[in-house]
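User: Good morning. I'm curious how nicotinamide-adenine-dinucleotide would be positioned relative to this chain. Could you predict the structure with it bound?
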Amino acid sequence: MADTSAPLTAGSTIGTWLEHPVGGPLIRGLLSASGVGDDALAPVSGLPLQQLVVMSQGQMPQSVVDDLVLQANGGVAPEETGVATGWVEKITPGRFAGQTVIVTGAASGIGRATATRIAREGGRVVTVDISADRLQEFAASVADAEVVTLAGDITKQDDIDAIVAAAGARIDGLANIAGINDDFSPLHETSDAMWDRVIGINLTGSFKLTRAVIPVMLAAGTGSIVNTASEAGLRGNASGNAYTVSKHGVIGLTRSAAFMYGPQGLRVNAVAPGGVATGIPMAASPSESGSARLTPFQRTIPSIATAEKLAASITFLLSDDGVNINGAVLPSDGGWSVQ
Ligand SMILES: NC(=O)c1ccc[n+]([C@@H]2O[C@H](COP(=O)([O-])OP(=O)(O)OC[C@H]3O[C@@H](n4cnc5c(N)ncnc54)[C@H](O)[C@@H]3O)[C@@H](O)[C@H]2O)c1
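Assistant: Good morning! Here's the predicted structure, ligand included:
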């Protein structure tokens, strides 16, 4: 049961807002204006209200959250008492000390949270993203850490070569996290452009970078690789055809490499996130038929995680505590995969 006596802030969970005698009607009013019932918010009830700004990708501006906080508190914004996610990341000092780890997709969402965690735990992080601006912004947020930024496209061989060169003679870890969504289209509606882009980034990009990194790890006789699959790598009803194929492919990439290189000291695993509150862009015009077919199943997602929760799973597999794990596909999804 949420604490309804504390003042509502942007850090209060959506569940707390919904249960609050003043906050509840405000949120329901906002929802009904957009034509949705509060059941749509059930999977995100454990997330702070603030997270809606990131997740809505501009549809819900910061001013809406600021206004809600003012309205819920008689026009006076209360002091923010901290983000109430119910779970707080715990840093293990020195867990990655002396290690170099490459993280792709590091300018946003799961990649950023993973790069941040490794940097704060003493690792040297080679951060890669196609967005140079957001990558610089990330680097500024961890200014005291050892962070190399490399703006590049993981589908381009020249950029892959630059990433490996920037990492240097030793690469202890690689987290392939960069990825994009599709347009939820079923197979017969999937355009060549959508297929090529989604398979190119999600699958071929991870393949190319891993191919370049493995010889460095083999020379050292050690190395840990974590690929980012998805619930869509485990089932057929989580996304469109191209994304589902790409993430099933990521699982094949993982298991084959784990088998091939295990005897030489490498570990290759995958994490399969469920719903995660990031800014991952949705297609401008999603397939109507695909969306209609998927929506009832997406509504059953038990909970939406923060990016930091995924970073916890990914860094566990990357770290020495993953010592006995090779070829695993770890669902990090709040239990979605067992439904
Ligand atoms: N958010 C979710 O609900 C969810 C669920 C399951 C799996 N995933 C997977 O997790 C990974 C991270 O997703 P996220 O939600 O953090 O998304 P995000 O959009 O917040 O972050 C992805 C990052 O990858 C970068 N990127 C895209 N194409 C690139 C390229 N060609 N080269 C280099 N960088 C590139 C983007 O600029 C972005 O910064 C993806 O592989 C995604 O498929 C996400």
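The chain has a mean pLDDT of 93. The radius of gyration is 21 Å.
Let me know if you'd like a different ligand tried.
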